[in-house]
Amino acid sequence: MYVLGIDVSTSVTAYTLINTECSQSDCLVKTEGIHLSKLSGIYNKADHVREHFEKLAKEYDIEEIYIEEALQSFRRGFSSAKTLSTLAMFNGIISYLAFKTFTDSEIALINVIRARSSLGIKLNRKSDKNTKEQVFEWVQKRKEFENFTWPTKVLKSGPRKGQEIFDKSCYDIADAAVMAMYGINLRAN
After folding, report:
1. Which of 11, 62, 2 is closest to 175 using CA atoms?
2. What is the pTM of this model?
3. What's the CA angle centered on 182, arms 14 and 89, to 5 degrees?
4. Phi/psi at 32 (5° precision)
5. What is the three-class DSSP state of 107?
6. Half-sphere exposure of 146 (CA within 13 A, CB side)
7. DSSP string, 21-87
């Protein structure tokens, strides 16, 4: 059985597909961060995500999909009302596309805090690392990801020119992985 976790964002929408009938080290089937920032308009972005979903639907019989619920409230210094509104609308569009593309799948919108808590992810509020970085590190240590090569990029300018760093999509892939692992954890309990 395949479980799909999705993290929705207008800049990078990511998914993680995990096989529940495997040993832990070979459970990760596929994961990807779909870069959308160079596309204009949420409908063009959604159409691009739909194309990726259709490829997945042709290859795999996905039974359950867990999508990170859109942010419900303001967080100081993070999002404006317009940003929250756009993200909620985009989340709805992507959720609907998943519903239409993976027709036999159960779809659940999941609160990210509940998912992290269920998996035992403890965030250190005093850390120099932000939430995304801490979640990324947690996912990197998981057995499912031990053979995964995380996407990187080489900086083209600035004081760190030429340095290879993790691509920003890694954080979204990690969030999608949390959704998929939450779904698997939910089924096991």
Report:
1. 11
2. 0.90
3. 45
4. -160, 145
5. strand
6. 8
7. SS-GGG-EEEEEEEE-TTS-SHHHHHHHHHHHHHHHHHH--EEEEEEEPPP-S--TTT--HHHHHHH
Helix (H, G, I), strand (E, B) or coil at 124: coil
Span 23-52, pLDDT tens digits: 666 789 999 999 999 999 999 999 999 999
Task: Give the phi and the psi of residue 136 in degrees, each rounded to 5.
Answer: -55, -45
Residue 184 and residue 3 in contact, taking contact as beta carbons nearer than 8 Å: yes
Domains, the chain, ordered by start: 2-188 (3.30.420.10)
pLDDT at 74: 47
Longest dimension (CA), the chain: 50
Which of 82, 84, 98 lies closest to 179, judged by CA?
A: 98
Nearest partner of 16 among 166, 128, 184, judged by Cα = 184
Place of tokens 């692992």: 181
- Cα–Cα distance, 127 to 4 (Å, whole number): 30
